[in-house]
Amino acid sequence: MVTFELGLIVCLVGLIMGAILGSLGAKWGLTVGLPTRIISFVLSGMPILVFLFWLHYPVQAMLGVVIDPFITASVTLATINTFAVADVIRTVLRDFPKQYMIAAQVCGLTPFQSLVLIQLPIVFRQTIPGLLMIQVTMLQATLFASLISVPEIFRVAQQINAQVYKPVEIYTALGILFLALCLPMNGIAILLRKRFTRDFSER
Hints:
single chain, mainly alpha, 9 helices, 82% helix
């Protein structure tokens, strides 16, 4: 349940904040888009484990505060997820063919109708495969939370193994569980990508 709660928080915060940040970055490239890309670039080069430890130990020591490890893990993973989602959203919006909106305007659609009937459906189809794969990665990354004492599923597995010492059975079961969760999501993402997405550069 702790893993589920952590994954849900990371997923919802990342998708909502990433969509907002990506939309703003596509609209205001220099003021929002450029800083977002720089931060995303830095985060992509930093191992999640290092970022998690840095926020949990040095930062809290410097500030003289003690924050619950669950909150630290949630903030860390949600931040990474937010900027990864923002990258996907911003790229699709930036590359969206302007002639689609011009054609909608010529056909007599209002800007709101063009947004709802033309732009949003296409953007949704372009982004959903990539966003699904990002969420799978973030679900797998929740395992790192065990290293700062968050009682998620990997830490529970460690505790059980310390009592009964059956590492092969315990970690095999854990691996099968994550395969059962992640493989279908990856499969759906690949299927959606092949069926619905297109290269806007072909326009």
